[in-house]
Amino acid sequence: MLSSYAFSDLLRISIFTGILVLLLSFAQRFLRRKQSTGTQLLGPPNPSFLFGHLRLLIKAPNGRGEIYEQWAKTYGPAYSVAGPLGSTRVVICDPRALAHYYSKETFTYVQSKFTKVLMANIFGRGLLYAEGESHRRQRKALSPAFSNASIRKLTHVFYDSVYKAKAHWDSIIQATPASDALIDVSEWMDHIALDSIGKAAFGHDFESLDGKSKSIAKDLHTLGTSSNGVVGQVIFILSAIFPSLLHLPTKQNLMIRRLRANMGRIADELLERNRQELDVTWVVMLLADFISVKAETNGGSLAMSREEILSQVFTLFRERGQNLNTNTIYRCMTQIVYATPGYATTSGSLTWALIELCRHPEVQQKLREELLQEAGNDPTFDQLSAGFPYLDAVAQEVLRLHPAVISTTRVAAEDDIIPFSRPIKIASGEQVFSLVVKKGDTITSPIDCVNTSDAFWGPNSKIFEPERWLDPNGLTGAKDLAGYRHILTFSDGPRMCLGRHFALTEFKAVLFVLIRNYSFELRDGPDTKIESLSSFARRPKIAGEKEPRVLMKFLLPLVLTSLLLVLVPFARRLLNGSRTNATKLLGPPNPSLIFGALPMILKAPGHASDLYNTWIQTYGPAFRVPGPMGSSRIMIFDPRAITHFYSKETFTYVQTKFTKIFVANIFGRGLLYAEGESHRRQRKALSPAFSNAAIRKLTHVFYDAAHKVKANWDSTLDGASGEAMIDVQAWMNHISLDSIGIAGFGHDFQSLDGQSSTVVDVFDSFASASDSLVGRILFLLSPVFPWLQHFPTRQNRLIKKMRATMERIGDEVLARNKAEFDGKPIAPEDKSIIGLLGECPPSLKRIKFSFRFPAKAELGGTSLAMTREEVVAQWALIELCRKPEKQQRLRDELLQAGSSDPTYDRLWSGLPYLDAVAHEILRLHPPVGQTTRVATEDDVIPFSEPVKTASGEEVTSIVVKKGDTVTVSIGYTNRSETFWGPNAKEFEPERWLDPEGLARAKDIQGHRHILTFSDGPRICLGRNFALVEFKAVLAVLIRSFSFELPHGPDTEIETHPAIFRRPKNAGEKEPRLILRVKRLE
Question: Across the chain, what does the average pLDDT equal?
């Protein structure tokens, strides 16, 4: 034991040694600064010789970003900041300087001794510790484990973890007497991140979500959220000068040691479990560690082949297990758990995301609406990556505002010159465009400052605004910045976070499940004060809480979320209606707050053409029509306005959310779903299959189907004295199904042969099914709440069944056409659309191969789309029955053409009255009655005649604001007396043969001056296909049979409300069209 004198001497020696170290350190810095020829910069005055500015920055209430930005405004894009004990560092905020700095990381700019010791203590001497060539080799070895292909296989792990959390939360909420519960989401996000990374990275379930691994989970959570005591903070600040201080037993350092011990025990288990068979990820990680060890042993060089390295790895593992021991595994585990895929980034970012969504309930609602549009299973990796634009925008905005690591500080390993994009003012008053950096200088990139700087992100840079990522001009200033998506959260250059895609996918998967199932509020409402706790990663906590907790209310979604979904959009519409500077238009009064005028329009006959005509007479060629829940849409009826509208489709005017879900549910996410450039590419790829040359080869298919019907009817008439009552609707359905099956995909459904199958049964049911009362109400509300289309109504169940059946047939089509996909020659006899696609020019091959999914997803959609053409055929027979003289005139023309079936060219242009009948039917009975789109940007629509506004002013153009809904009524335009004369509503094929018959209609664009096939970029690609099929079928039937309505020309015909309106005999419960059919001799 030491005597009191000896202890006193030892204490004096220790104090003297400490003072001597301080003086020598200060003298060294003073002399180096005097000798330095680096650029002398301006900077804020030093507030403390002992701590410099470091203490001020650590205690900043809103993070360091605002302080750094204020200094940048005062001293320019590069300035000097004081550190402890007279040290200094250079802070750079210029995009060109930052790009240069990050590009030279691990070689010119390396981690300081302080950072190296900190990394080694926490993460071991692995990837995060390495520099230069050693870092490059380790990163290369680890990269395959974080590729998209690897993450794609691991996505289910993220869902497993979040659903486990969801089950716990459901239990908590159900056990709470009130309708909500307070839950500390911060700790739960840590558990989700820990369990996900454990299973995904090295096959170990920490089971922290099940209440196990309490010590590790608690230590990781506390390590990420706690700060040291006063002594610990002083030691941490001085560690920047004396890195050895990081080995002192402070609170955090003791926690790190305990964490290492616990991780070590798990490492022992993993080592034993993996002795016989190593997981691929483990081989990559262990190989990276082995490379690091060997490279350091050989002085930084490694002259070994990949095969030799692998051989030695496995030899060492099997024979000794020395290099691949617990410490090796621990280093891999810690860098994977806490750093590489961003344990702190993921859990912290998820907590910040929920906070921001609580602060901005309208953003939470908008995100929920997007996520609820996805039906069925949880989204795949590819859907999470690119299928949810608003989710992606929320993720990027959270990462921008709340980076887990707020700065990057490095030491120059050699002299360097950093270029700047704008001049910097130096201490001498001179302005220069580059900064001389001397070996040993410290450089800092303030990540949180750059991510939220007004200079790059505009005046709303500090505000949570996900919309900036959806606006093409939203990132104008930030595009000068390097980094992932122009933010520095994942760093940049050689040290850019290797696990960024892992972290992003986990973030999106977790948020997808939580936002779809729960509504979130901060404990004390949107204005709850949140503090930023700076530790190893910046984490949030409620102000005043001793523990780093973020308490939120979780509301059961069944009732409360439904109310939100109703009230928030309604309130938003009221606010938007009062703020918008779009042209204020007149319009009919709102008959229903819930449904608007929609039921009135849907019930009106003839696609509401008479109703629209009344409104036009009252309000003019443009007016607003009230929709469900306070929404409205602009309706335009002027030819110049209509032309402008259609010309800007897929870019300025796109499908509404309601239409997108509707199209995706029925037709798949193909051509009909796509917008903009994607739509253009897909259309270009498909165009050869619908050319005149291609259809010419397929004409025989239409005749085959029509002659099958003729043969069946002949058999029926043979036993009925040449006359019978036949339900022509069912036969028209089967003609369309068999024709598109053979012509489109080389698959014969054989429905005309009486072949029963799931497809035929579902197709028949789907073509005529109408929904229940509940289904109709949901459909009426769907334009406002598109996700209602996912409810299992009768029609939606039929759609799902149809899609599943078509998927199976799609598999057969893909298998049979594999030769085409492999680039082999197409069989000469294969004249189907999918076969003809194989003959497209080489320049389109890449597009074609990326478009393989139509064989499966669009097979059902194309077949369903063809039901529109069979509806037109039914209306043709009805109109010819109402006008027997026109039926006879058509028959005379067809009989004069000869006994054989007309050729494609004859059908196209050699039978003028058949062509006139076809176009008159298409004019009077368009299967789709209107086109409704939403504006993606502000626009001005010109008119050919004045429009009277709500103020009484007359204008020749109207202003449409982004988000406005615009509708063109195809049914009205096709039947308008303004364009088609006083007999516009009459079946008069002769108008198409009279040179003056279309005089006013020529102002209308579209196919032959009708809008049945739409117009502009979305004009129906298969219109010629449909016309030739229609003419071929009508030619065979009219030449062979005469048709009459059951009770004469005045027989009442009703419209059956289905997805595509179809005719039926009045009084029939089922949508049947019974006609008297007579065989002609």
Answer: 77
